[in-house]
Amino acid sequence: MEINIEKLIYGGKGIGKLYGKTCFVPFVIDGETVEVRVKKEKKNFIECELSSIIEPSPHRVKPLCKYFRYCGGCDYQHIKYEKQIEIKKEILKETLERLGKLENIDISKVIPSEKPFFYRNRVQFKVRGNQIGFYMKESNRIVNIDSCLILKEDLNESLEGLKELIEFLEFKPVEIHIYSTNLNQVLIKFIYPKRFKRFPLGLKHIKAFVNKNTVGIGIFEKNNEFLKKFISIGKQFVYEVINLEEINREIKYRVSINSFFQVNRFQVKNLVKEVLEEIKNENYKEALDLYCGVGTITLPIALYVNKVIGIEANKFAVEDGNHNKKLNSLKNVNFIKADAGKNIDILEKYNPDLVVLDPPRSGITKELLNYLNSKESIKKIVYVSCNPSTLARDLAVLSERFYIKNIKLIDMFPQTYHIESITTLEKKR
Ligand SMILES: C[S@@+](CC[C@H](N)C(=O)[O-])C[C@H]1O[C@@H](n2cnc3c(N)ncnc32)[C@H](O)[C@@H]1O
């Protein structure tokens, strides 16, 4: 059956019409005519598989990765990078207008990734027996890969060695996570499903197989979604550096094995710069940085405001933040361990004129939205989001008291459907 692809939607698929019903097709581009096979028909929509391309888009390219279409990691490798960005811009605008009921959305700036491949500094491999790779699309079967083109080069080197190493391990992990910083320091986590007797190898043995810059290993047990450390070998943290050229200042970060750091090694600096761009010309007295991690944005903000407080739920990240404050000789920063969405009593102790927030995909809670709308002192909010749907929901509420000054798209995740954005809001007069 032949259909025309009208547009791409959030999640990576394209949509078209088949006997009046909306159908979803992966690996297509708007404007294409394609042949599809029906996979699942529901009352209101049809899930299709792509059989062949009848009229290709001029933006179609040959995917570089041989696992593309099987592996669950990438969605857009068949699309030229410039067009990927255009699609994300359109989806972000459309989502904010449709779900957020916001009018005339203008994405005023787009920041593409300097490199659209080899950008990820972090990976979570799935393991089954001696197979290492990623889940297949919409399945928990594993694609047993020998390399991944969106990973930083040394993560691929480590994968090669891990494939040899895993054969010797009596107890096989279920996941292996690797993180390599922009200073090329590597941490590896082996994740086991339940308590096991012992991990048979030391750092020296592991290093013989994986990247030589590996400084530490953690052996973790997975209980539901929670990871509990069982054994640690070597260092349990690494360092990152961001160079703020405009003010000739380097910011250093310690990142523990349990802490978050932005995954696109080329874009983290640009993310920080774009947030600073929104605040540097005003003289803010007190800033709150909610969901602050190890202080990625908090510490640079400290260079421009009288005082900044970072709020973070992960105690390891808070410890890193406090360490990083000293590492960078910054005295006007404080990190507090709290749930930014629930511990509103803690936020109430402050009178911030600036709030920066960078929540997980779930966005922010009703309580936090209520706090932001009702706190008189807040003049500006800079909202960093990795999910357009929850951003739209939250902006709809915040637009009661704030207007949108600008929205920027920063592409943190080339080759995938994920959309990261920075929205600046100012209090209505
Ligand atoms: C998208 S990351 C952003 C971190 C930081 N802004 C950065 O750029 O590195 C989200 C952070 O929010 C933290 N987090 C998740 N839920 C939270 C909550 N309810 N309250 C406070 N922090 C939370 C996570 O531990 C993580 O560090």
The residue-averaged pLDDT reads 95
- Number of strand segments: 23
Number of helices: 9
Enumerate the strands of the largest sheet in spatial order, edge to edge or round the barrel: 7-22-23-21-20-17-18-19
What separation lies between the terminal Cα atoms?
55 Å
**Bound compounds, please?**
S-adenosylmethionine
Number of domains: 3
According to CATH, the fold-level topology of the largest domain is Rossmann fold
**CATH architecture call of the largest domain:** 3-Layer(aba) Sandwich
What does it look like?
- This protein folds into 3 domains: 59 residues, Beta Barrel (OB fold (Dihydrolipoamide Acetyltransferase, E2P)); 182 residues, Vaccinia Virus protein VP39 (Rossmann fold, 3-Layer(aba) Sandwich); 117 residues, Beta Barrel (OB fold (Dihydrolipoamide Acetyltransferase, E2P)), CATH 2.40.50.1070.
- With 429 residues, the protein is α/β, with parallel strands linked by helices.
- The strands form 4 sheets. The chain has an 8-stranded mixed beta sheet, with helices on both faces.
- Helix 1 crosses helix 9.
- The site of S-adenosylmethionine has 18 residues, from strand 18.
List keywords for this structure.
alpha/beta; 3 domains; Rossmann fold; 8-stranded mixed sheet; 9 helices; 429 residues; OB fold (Dihydrolipoamide Acetyltransferase, E2P)
Q: Brief description of this entry?
A:
With 429 residues, the protein is α/β, with parallel strands linked by helices. Helix content is 22%, strand content 34%.
